[in-house]
Each structure stands twice: as C-alpha cells, then as structure tokens.
C-alpha cells in the first residue's frame, strides 16, 4: 500500500525524521511517501501556523489522490486540516494526535500528554474534547521547547521532555505518556526507557492505524458530512481548487 | 470605531449583503468595513472550503491591523480561522456562529439552529460543543439549500428556511431560532415574523458584541495561548507571513 | 433606552457604586436607573441570602415594567432570580455572572474567577455548568473577603483580590480574570493594571450586553418556558403578586 | 423523629394530600408535620412562582428549627430553595425531585419524567443536570395539566398522566417513570397499575430518604458551602431574617 | 424484611464486621443475613478480583431468591456484578459505593472519597461517572492500605485513613467524606470524630436505602434492560446457571 | 505473532465463525488462536451472562500467558472482563466493541450501532460513555434477534440487520454503522453492500488494532491501575487463581 505521510510544516529535516520513523515501523508491504507542502510555516506552534499549514495539507492530499494513495497521515500534533482532508478522499486519513490518543487509551486507563510549548496545550485540549478523550487525559504538559529545537538542539530538548515525563509519572496517576509533537517521532525508545512508562508517539501510531484501516478495507465515509465537497469556483491564488471532482 | 467585517468567501454580492445588514444595525460611531479575501472559495459549504477560506481571513486581519482596526468579525457560520485570527491582534475578533449562540442563550433557555446544508451541521455541532452551548441547542436543522441560492434564488430559499423554522418551533421545545449562515443576514425580520419566535442572526449579533467589547476596552488576551504567534519563516506562496511581528 | 440596573442587596452604597460604574460605561443614549429592593439582605453571601434577594429582584422587574424599561440587569454575581425575572418581561434580562462569563470566553480560551468568599464558589460553579462555561473556567478562587468589606475596607480588600488574581495568572494557565462580585464594579482598571491580564467585570459587561440586545431588538422569548407566568393567586405578604398579567 | 414536610405552595388541599401520602408511607416512629408557608403562590408552575415560594420554604425551615425538627422535605418538584434551606439547619433537607431521581436510578438504568406543564420541563432538566442524572433520564414529558387540576379535576388529570406514562413506556426505552409533581403523591398506585412500570413519586421517596439519613445520623454538612449563613441585617419586610444564628 | 448483605469476598471476618455494622443500623423489622460466596478472592483490590467475585455475588442472589429475600446489598466498594444481580430479582439491589455517593450528595454539594489502594481509584472514578456523581466528587484519595490490613492491622490502617481524611478536609473544598471500602464499615464514628466532617459509609448507607426502597414497594424494574435474563444453557462449572427462570 | 481470540461464550460454532473471520483479515505473520472458555453461557445477552462469561475470559488470558501470547481479543460486543484481563498480562488486550468504536470514529464523524437485542443496548451505551464515544454515536439500534439466531437462522437475521442498518442510514445522520455482535463477524461484506455505508465490525477491527499495537511494541501498561493484581488466596472453585504471579 501507498501511505502518504504529510508533514504539514516545511522543514525538510523534520520531514526526513518523520519519514524515517514511519519507515522503520511500517509493515513490509507499506510504501511510505514522506512529503511536505510547497508552501507554509517552517514549524507549527500556534493556531495561526496551523491555519496556514492546513492548506498545504489539502494540496498534499490532492497530489496523493492523483497518485493512487491508499492512506494518509497528517503528521503534526494539532491534526491541522484533518476533517477537510477527509472530505477529499475515499482513503483513510489519520492525524497523529488522534492516533496517539486512541492507542494510549487501549493500553492505559489514564494518560498525560507531554508537548512542546504551553501555548499549544489548548489545541490538544480541544482535540481531546472533540475526539472523546477528555477524561482519559489527566494533564497536558509542556516542556517549553520550540519545535525546531527538537531538530537543532536535540539533546537539551530530550532532557526536558524526559524531565516532564518523569513528573507526569510521579504526579498524574497515569499509565502512559503521549508525545505531543511530530518532531519527537524518533525519540520514543529513549524516552520510554528513561521514564519507565509506555510512551505513545503519534507518527508511528498513525502508520499502524492507517495500515489497520486499509487492511479492513475501511476508508473515509462518503455518506454525509465527509462526502466530497461540492465542486465550486475558487478565486485568486486558490483558483486551482476550482471545480474539484473526486477521482471516481 | 473601525469594525472590519470579513466575509470569508469571495462572493462580492454576499459581502455587500452582509455589509449592509451590519451597517443598518451598527451604532452611530461604528464604521463598518466589509471585506473579503483576495482568494478563496465563492461559498463555504464543507470543511475543505473552510480550511481554504481560513487563510484569507488571516490576511484580512493583517490588513486590518495595518489600518488600525478596533474589532473584527468573521462572517461565516463555521467561524473559520477564529482562534488563529485572535492570535494576530489585540482587538476583539468575533465569529458569527459564536455571536448568535451567545445571544440566543441570553433570551431563551433552549434554541435550534436552521442552517443551509445538512453536511455542515457537524461544523455547528463541533462549535456548540467547544463554546459550551451543546445543551442549549436542541437541534441543528438544515433547509438543504446551497449557500449561493440565498443570493440567486432568494425567495425559494427563504420559503424553505421559514418552513424549517416553523417545524423547529412546533417540534423542538425551543424559545429562539439561530440562523446558520452569514448569507441570511438580511432575512431576520422576515423570518422572525413568519415563524413567530425570536430569530438570532450572527452578523448583526456579532456587530453588537464587537461594539460591546470595544466599549468595555476588552480585547483579545495576549497572555497565554492567544498571544501573538512566534515570528518565523513561511515558504513559497505564504512567504509574506514570515517574521510577522505585532503592530505594537 | 431605559436600563434598570437592579442591585439585589439593600446596601445603598453598593447600589451607588454599581450605578456609577454602569453610567460611566453606558452609551450616550442609555439611561441607567440603579435601584435596589425595598426589602432584603444587605449583602449576598449564601444561598439563603440569594433566595430572599430573588424576591426583591422580581419586584424591581415589575416596577420596571410599569415604567417602560428596555432592559434589566441583575447585579449580583449569583444571578439571583434570573430565569424568574425573564418570565416577567419581554425585555432582555442579564445577570452579571452570566455577562462576565460570556465576555471572558470571547477574549480568552480559559479564564479564572476571583470571588469574595469561598463558600459562594459553589454558586459560581453551578452557574458555569448551567450556562455552558464549565470547561472555560479553570478555577473559581476566593479572596476570602466579606462583600461589605469592599465598601468599608476597600484598600485591604483590593490588595487581596490583586494577590489572588496574580496567583491565578501564575498558576492557572488562563488568559483573563473574571471578577466575582458586583461590588467590584469600580475596581476593574486598578486590578487590570496590577495583574496584567484582561479583567472582565460583570456590571459593565452586562450594560454592554443589554445595549447589544436592545440594539438587535432581541428580548426574552415569550414562547415556551420563559413565557409570562400563568396568572394566579398569591397569599399573605405576597398577595400583590396575584393575577399578574403582562403589560401587553 | 419529627419530619417537617413543607408544601411550598399555599393550597391547603394539596398540603393535606401530600401529608396523607407521607403519613401512609412513614415508619412507625416518624411524625409527619405537613405545613405550608403563610404567604406565597397557590401553585408553582414557573420560575417566578418558584422564586417567591422559596422564601416561604425558608420560613418553614426556621419554624421547624425552633421546634426541634429532625428532617425536612421540600414537596414541590422544582426543589425550590433547597440549597438555601440546607444552610439553615444541621438536619437533612430533601427535595422531592431529587428524591425521586435518586430512587429511580436505583431500580432502573433509564427513566422518564411525567410532569404537569411543558413550561416547567426546563426546571426538571436543570435539576437533572445539577444532580448528575441527565443521562439517566431519557425524556421529560408533560401531560399539560395545570397543577391545581390535580386537585379540582382529578380524574381527567390522571387519565392524561396515564396516557403520557404509557407513551413513555412504549417509546423511551425506560425501566421506570418519575412523577413530576408533588400533587401526584396519592396517585402512585393507580398509575403504576395502569402503566405497568415502577412509578417513583417524590414525596414518598423523600420521606424514606429522610428517615434513612436520620437513621444514619447524617445531617447537612456544616463545613464549607452549606454552613450556616453569616448573620447580617435584612431590611423591610424581610427584617425578621436579620441576625439569624444557628440553634446550636 | 429479609435483607441479604453479600460480602463479595471470602474473608469471614470481614463478613462478620460488615454484618455487625449493618445489624446495628438496621430498623427493628429488618433481618440482616450477612453472607459471602462459597468461592472467590479473600479481598478485592483489582478489576480481576472484582470479575471473579462478581460470579459469587450472583450465586448469593440466587440463593437469596430461593429464600424469599426482600432486598440485597453488594458490600464491596466497586459494586461488583451490580447490574447482573439486578437482572436476577424483583427485589432492590444496592451497591455500597452507589449508596454512599447518593447519600453524600444529599448532605453536601461536593465530597471526596478515601479508599484503600490507589490502583482501585479508577474503579471509583468509573462508577462516579456511570452513576452521575463525577462532578460531586472532588477527588478519590487512597490511604494505600491493603484491604485485609483493615482486619489485621486495624489501628495503623485507621490512622492512615484519618490522615488522608484530614488532608481532604483541608485541601479539597468539600463538605463530606465517603469511605471507600466495605471493610471500613465499623470505623465511621471514629473517623467522623477525628476528621470533623460528615463521613458516609456505604454498608450502613445501603441498609437504609434498601429499607427505603422496600418501604416504598419499589423493586428492580423488570421492564427493559434489567428484565430477567433469557434462560439458556451454561456449560462446565457454570452448568448450574442453565435454564434459570424467575421465581415468579 | 500469536493472537489469542477469545470468544467469551461457549458455542463452538460461533468460535469457528469468529476465528475464520479473524484469520481472513489477519496479516501473514499473525497466527490466530480462536478459543472459548471451558465453562460459561452459550450466548451473551444480559449483564448476568456477561458477569459469568468474564471469568472464562480471565482463564483464557491465563492460558494464553502460559503459551507466550502477543495479543488478546475479547470477542463479545460488551467487552466482558476487559480491564480485568488487562491486569493479567503485559500484552495488549482489545475488546471488539472498543475496536469497532475506535475505527468508526476514524472514518466518520458520527455512527450508529446495530446490535442484537434491545436489552443489551444499555451495555453499549455504558461502554460508549466510558470509552469517550458517547457523542460520536447517534443511536444504538437493535434488530431484536437473539444471538444464536445468527448461527441458526442466519438469513432471516441478516435481513433484519440490513433493515435496521438502512433505517439508521436514512434517519440518523451518520457516516458509518457499527455491528454490535461478535456473531456478525462474517456478515460485514454483505451488510456493507446492502446498506451502502461503511460497516465496521469489531472482530476484524480488533485483529488489526492488536497487530498495530504489537507492531508498535505497545502493551498494557503495568504502571498504575492496570498493574498485575496483588497475589492472594482464592477459595473454593476459584482456588486455582490463588497466588497468581506474572509470567515475568
């Protein structure tokens, strides 16, 4: 199967990191295509960054549709553009926050999230509520590291994530930790060992959920509110979205 | 005060309709500037349309910031890009769905929404949950009319909205009706009379809420998760968002 | 417009304080009539005080109806008698707790309340739940000052409110503070400056919401559960409520 | 034990009906004192009626305190003044809506309420939410009979209640029915037989809960938010509430 | 009335303790039969212990049915097998966690639970949510004492429970404490005095609720999802459950 | 990997059906071992059946542990004994209701459940609430067919399920249907085609989720409330559970 792994930001290093983590975990028959939008923010750390990145995500979905993609992953912990993306395809589309929450709730009764910046905690809280996991998550914690520090100052960043994870283990009454950033995709093993709790990371979780859905021949429902958008005109720089019609 | 009324879609006729409705309701000192993005969908009827439109909304906020705007309204019932827009300014930013829900909850204990297409009901449901009004809304009903029919085939559209409103009054145990589309901004009086219930329309409600906040000298909090986004690089077609820094 | 501002307690000093704060914030055409019941508690600090005060509130509404009032405010943070008051009039009726919660949710994603006594926190919690803001409020904090100390020992009281507000800013992950007592109506500017967060005060917020609703020609729905009460006999000291019939 | 059964309205016939139903169900050692306020509405069918009646309830509690009462019941389905009443005494105070909901949830997983007028359904909904039973109640149904018709036109009223109960049984997927009016206290057996479901009536349920709490030596907590109100001045017609101090 | 008090574990000493506490609190006409399953865990401290114990509970119900029992109590704080037990009888069946939560919510607005081991807190949390008391309980606290230490090392155990209760009183903003283990049935008076808050204990609470329901002639609804199970074959060691048919 | 698929009932035909469905969907390296308890009910249609079956589930987990199992599935739609089973192993344990809900929420925003008997709908409702999917499920519908009719009178049963599914599609505003019984494991394709909506079946969904978790090296957390149970004595027929200690 073709699995398009969309890094919604435009930092190639992070796309590579994510792509490698996904490839390592993928089943033999899964072909990972790690991509990033042609345009957008170099990291996503605010609602504004998310709003801009969401458009690039849609373009990556449309590109994937032209290539016969079997499943998509949106590899940013805010799941930017997720429901929009689902409208564009019959294939499953998985967000990494969503994937991590689902998996964490299957191996523990309560978990905490360790994310990058405190200001993005509200994004996680809104997603937890929308997806149904508000009561499974004890606390959204922030290590207060900018996303790109994960690339540029990895060691210090990891140390802070581990510290926060240990505090979560000691104080939150939890069974598992969810890593709250796509850029942490290669840190799971190290953090798991250092904290001593199961650590759920979204990119890898999403790869496995995508494979699961494809294996079940389940794709995004085209009945009701996730049906293909009604074709219409778009103007200006978004004119290329005009008259979109589904592949089949 | 300068009130920038952003129609997130790119249909000039709808911008005009909305702008006129806003101007009629505005206080003497309120100067309404009705705008629309340079690029985007001609109507918003899906998550995808919303995701694209949300970028245009941000650009309209940035334009407003350069002109010393006192308050903003996002005039599409899905409130696209609302939290992102709030990050970009110290001024208040009001979504019309939000505005209508707040006002309806002040004059009735329970209300229903009458929107355009059934497929967008999920957007209203998600907003009701996030804003806290899930239990105040009995039902989200759809008249099943495409948004632009409000412009092009007004009479038939109004008849269907009135029908649905009457059903809501008869069946839902409610005290008020919320109109679920910016394009209905000029229909309030007609529907109110025909249905015989208070009808809350979001554009007008938002104008009054924006005036209220400005009168209270309350603007979007810049402490915590709605602070200005961290300046950063954007690439490609979104390069103009690079290094954004707040006006003051 | 005539705006009847009802202080539910019988302390004339507080009625004056509230009336002045309301007058300062009111739009040019808004005529504030600050009143208080002829009978009731000198301050409201318990469910019992609220229950007694709620009757005086109704009488003030009925007095207002005879005078052609355009909107009412109930200026005690527990919103005593709010739904009952709404039944008595076609005009909008706004509680100050309600007003403050609505406004705070428009400028921040999460807020905390700073109220007077810890024992009244449960009143705020019940209102937050009923109005839909339970998840928007991180914490209801008490400065542990009796209500009338705001009148009599203002400086010390303000110092404690500011202390509690600073703790809220430091610990609660919030963007705004709601002041939890009508008697704080004249302290907003001072507390805002001292704490460094937007501070939402209910009396002023309610004035602006009332003006907004009147501007929208929206009044309390008379369809359904807020319709005028069925006229009936009342006995004894409440005989004057017998056979109430709506003004028109 | 002395059990003061407070009918919050001032219709002596209903006080008698309720008192008889309570006496029939009471344990041998329970002495029922059925009372009604000296002043107030002859029936309670709105928030306004409730607000006025709540004051009479407090006076009945205070009268009871002077007589050494062991437990109180507030015998109107909206539980008017319940939390205020709890502040005034160390004895338990039970509302009949509350009592019925608790008991119904012990014998069924889901129940429906059959009340008098549709306009009071919102009162039941608010109580269900506050008490925690929102998900246990499938539906609040109204037979659309004024409260005093239960006294004056009993047969027709009962027929409508039975009809509504049968519809509830057929449509709601429930295991029990809650009768939503104190005036139905003597109808339990007849409705149970006619509908063929367990029928929970609040007056009788409250008598048994009050006996249970007294048997457990559990009374209203005087620690925290239900502590005795701070003594203070009341003015005018409520002057007699001034300087209230607990019996001991 | 015959009240069968089922201790779901197989420690005779605890059955005796519970039975004595129940007998002390029971009304004159209530005959307490304290029993325990023939097979099962000696204490219940995990989901696994609960799952095994739940079968013994059913057998005790069936034994009770043969003897003409009027009401049942399941005397373990996780209420193991409660809904299953209800299916087997027309009599009321009360769990002690359930009983304690109901009673605590009648005498306070907020309470905390003090239980034995932290690992069982999740069981209490799930029950609080299912029964509707999630918002009434501020916190589930654990004294971290194994259940049988209550029997074997009573003094030390009580000291820890009292410590935790005092912390709850000081920190949780509560009006009452719920004891979270059947084995604490004889400690209520001591803990109440030491902590200085009303203390609600489940075994005694359940006895009084059972008497209340029997007094009301209310039993488990046999309409809908608590109807007698459809008779069917059981195999192997559970063959004796085959073809169960209700007593009447 | 070794995947132990536990049919909690003792009908060998259903174990075979489920095993075949699982085997068809399993990845090449997954070895399905379909088992059933040595003792228990021949079908599960009530809380009572569930309570008995849950013990057999535990024994199958313990048997699996002795054989080096990598993951477990509990193949009855009520997920009987799920949390208990998780305590007994480091491997993941998945319930089929849980699996189906998770998967359905990834391909649609709202779904309905079609189950066998109306009386078991409450079981699904409780699970939806506990797992967090209460708002994602519009309605739990019953085809009113006994479980074993799926084996014995397959054609008629399927026809009724399809009818109910079509009603769900027409009335519920959903994007997907969840099949609410393990015995429907081989009907997915037929129902999908007949109804014209994505149909999520729990056995197959659970196989894929189990493979996903094993692929991620994520097993049940042994920190906190799902840790191995404390070893202890069990008496009588459950003596073999005494002194359980984890495999490693």
Automatic annotation (TrEMBL), chains A, B, C, D, E, F:
It comes from Bisbaumannia pacifica. Gene3D superfamilies: 3.40.50.12500. Its EC number is 5.1.99.5. GO terms for molecular function: amino-acid racemase activity; hydantoin racemase activity. It catalyses: D-5-benzylhydantoin = L-5-benzylhydantoin; a D-5-monosubstituted hydantoin = a L-5-monosubstituted hydantoin; D-5-isobutylhydantoin = L-5-isobutylhydantoin. It comes from the Bacteria. This is Hydantoin racemase. Belongs to the HyuE racemase family. Pfam families: Asp_Glu_race. It is an enzyme of class 5 (isomerase).
């Amino acid at each position: 199967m073709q699995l398009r792994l969309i890094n919604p930001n435009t930092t190639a290093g992070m796309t590579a990191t994510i792509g490698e983590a996904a490839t390592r975990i993928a089943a033999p028959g899964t072909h990972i295509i790690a991509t990033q939008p042609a345009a957008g923010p170099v990291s996503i750390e605010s609602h504004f960054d998310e709003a801009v990145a969401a458009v690039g995500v849609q373009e990556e979905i449309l590109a994937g549709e032209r290539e016969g993609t079997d499943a998509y992953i949106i590899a940013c912990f805010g799941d930017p553009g997720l429901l929009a993306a689902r409208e564009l395809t019959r294939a499953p589309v998985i967000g990494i926050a969503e994937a991590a929450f689902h998996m964490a709730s299957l191996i523990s009764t309560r978990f905490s999230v360790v994310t990058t910046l405190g200001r993005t905690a509200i994004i996680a809280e809104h997603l937890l509520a929308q997806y149904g996991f508000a009561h499974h998550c004890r606390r959204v914690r922030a290590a207060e590291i900018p996303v790109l520090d994960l690339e540029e100052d990895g060691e210090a960043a990891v140390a802070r994530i581990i510290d926060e994870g240990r505090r979560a283990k000691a104080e939150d009454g939890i069974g598992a930790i969810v890593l709250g950033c796509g850029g942490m995709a290669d840190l799971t093993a190290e953090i798991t060992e250092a904290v001593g709790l199961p650590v759920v990371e979204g990119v890898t979780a999403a790869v496995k959920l995508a494979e699961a859905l494809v294996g079940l021949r389940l794709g995004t429902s085209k009945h009701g509110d996730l049906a293909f958008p009604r074709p219409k005109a778009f103007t200006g720089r978004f004119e290329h979205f005009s008259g979109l019609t589904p592949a089949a």
